[in-house]
């Protein structure tokens, strides 16, 4: 595909993958995390089937600690495009009061990894699109586009199906499923350039704004509601207004912001193109030691 | 706007390919700060003492770190002012040939590392052969470790001659040979002053400027493998897919294959906006002027020269741990078509190192062979050298679902022998999802009753098994009938008298040999037969050819 620009080539590849899954998988679903990668993936799904709506639902795993602006954005997008948006929460985890302050790594496991597995099992989805990119982390660099999960939903990195050309093998036995990553070959830079080119709407949290913040373990954490105030016994003087934005979105107590003046799409892209720190530095969970992401993924984390 | 170059690096464990790519990224200042920190940190506990070990940048998986080798393809991304790059870093060891083939199928260009102190080795030949098989047209031989031979021109020229011979043998179209040192950074991104005798481009400059589309432009005509029929409402029917060759405009007449029906293109959507024209690489949805018989797996084309056939010859790379035997059946994926087929013969095996052809009855993992394949109905085929997409295929194991082989179409409408399509007992068995079995019951003598056997069959049918309760009349040749039923993939419950002779049939079992302890109830019989007829991976369908 010689004459296409690199963004056109990446777009064509992703649309091809999304259409293949829709044609071959028995019950697909697109995971939607509300962030910039999900925004691009949703946009590609809308393009892939136009003028038809995407022939599958979207699924958001809600840990109950997401930024409020994210949830509002999610509901507005689903309404705007007429999409089926499923939400799943791990009710057992909620009853047990699992939270990011007291439960550390097991919080992510219970409210995110386990919740995802429960949701996929509940609905019987056989293929789940995820917005993962290979440039995010070293162990992701080796994941296939079609990533096979056994009946226990685990990934076996030593035994991946060979993947040739664009011939994807989506054959499954009962109970097995696949994760599909249409954005495998995109970089963070590609995502932002594409958002700018297509003028996509993104969550306001990506734009710099004065926000109430505290500092915790070297990360700038936004005070999104009262729960963090109670948990950490914050006094009013602990909270400062700082002009920050987020390069990646997740649960607000675990997502560090960066100080920035970038309050337009162009400014964000400019800032990102010159970035000297890769985006996962602001995700707290990735720093638990070499190979932590791979371990988590073997257990079913996206 | 930048375009995108996908390339692969091949070399064995000690050739330093991870180091070369690490250096390419590092010199270009493309490592993000925290990865760089992690790299320095890893180096402290790493293998080579204080110095930065660039290869640690690339080896992602825990298992690989533990073994200190690269076992799977790692994809790396970087951009220069002139181009965006995706690099597939692949394992060099023979055991991981299939992983290398994955990376090669993805790439337009191959960088093959040659150790300057060793020259062209059998593994160099293997790497080049796999890359050529998977369709790569552009090759760079990076003669690495020039520092170890004192940057000696004479030794480099000798290696150049060896590569020239390899080029001829494999018929490689475009070949560059560059002397480099990955650890020292010579001729990777910057011209080395230690090899003034080399006046060609340095590696990065070549990668930035090479045009890999020249060869691909030679594909004839227009074709679009249909991925999906788009039907949002009664009035709209569109055919979605990616254009694999040429271009199409509103008003063009296209032919639907295999039906052969023709229609005019009335509307073209490129993704979500309407256009008058679209060309190779673009994702489109086409609307046609009249109803034609088109579904997923069909191809819309114009003057492409694609063929219809139900048999063809392919060059395949066998990738499964279980050896391939003639007569094995598969799901074949080719373009957007998936169809049952059978590997009807092995013409010859190609020695992966020397290229010599040799006769073969079976194929082991990582072996290459010319084979004949027959499918159950005519499909749209192209020779791989002429039509990439309709000439690439996978063989998917029908029982394990593994991708057992990949291959490319070398000739269409194969020899008469290959055209003989036949179903095997294994295919029928796989379709029924059960192992055939003939169980001989002797009511009154083996603890069963005729009533319990009948009820056991009822229970088996309820569990989805295909069965036949067979109580032959006097004088009937029941042994022969039972053999046919077994070949049809059926579970036979054969009721005989106490004195009737034993059945001489591989699938036959006396109930007395299978019976569990205790009362022989219908439930116990059904449970035992269910267990006995489970289809498992150990069941080798290749052995079942008539």
UniProtKB/TrEMBL annotation, chain A:
<dbReference type="InterPro" id="IPR014729">
    <property type="entry name" value="Rossmann-like_a/b/a_fold"/>
</dbReference>
<comment type="similarity">
    <text>Belongs to the PAPS reductase family. CysD subfamily.</text>
</comment>
<dbReference type="InterPro" id="IPR050128">
    <property type="entry name" value="Sulfate_adenylyltrnsfr_sub2"/>
</dbReference>
<dbReference type="Pfam" id="PF01507">
    <property type="entry name" value="PAPS_reduct"/>
</dbReference>
<dbReference type="GO" id="GO:0000103">
    <property type="term" value="P:sulfate assimilation"/>
</dbReference>
<keyword id="KW-0547">Nucleotide-binding</keyword>
<feature type="domain" description="Phosphoadenosine phosphosulphate reductase">
    <location>
        <begin position="28"/>
        <end position="256"/>
    </location>
</feature>
<dbReference type="InterPro" id="IPR002500">
    <property type="entry name" value="PAPS_reduct_dom"/>
</dbReference>
<dbReference type="GO" id="GO:0004781">
    <property type="term" value="F:sulfate adenylyltransferase (ATP) activity"/>
</dbReference>
<keyword id="KW-0808">Transferase</keyword>
<feature type="region of interest" description="Disordered">
    <location>
        <begin position="279"/>
        <end position="302"/>
    </location>
</feature>
<protein>
    <recommendedName>
        <fullName>Sulfate adenylyltransferase subunit 2</fullName>
        <ecNumber>2.7.7.4</ecNumber>
    </recommendedName>
</protein>
<dbReference type="InterPro" id="IPR011784">
    <property type="entry name" value="SO4_adenylTrfase_ssu"/>
</dbReference>
<dbReference type="GO" id="GO:0005524">
    <property type="term" value="F:ATP binding"/>
</dbReference>
<keyword id="KW-0067">ATP-binding</keyword>
<keyword id="KW-0548">Nucleotidyltransferase</keyword>
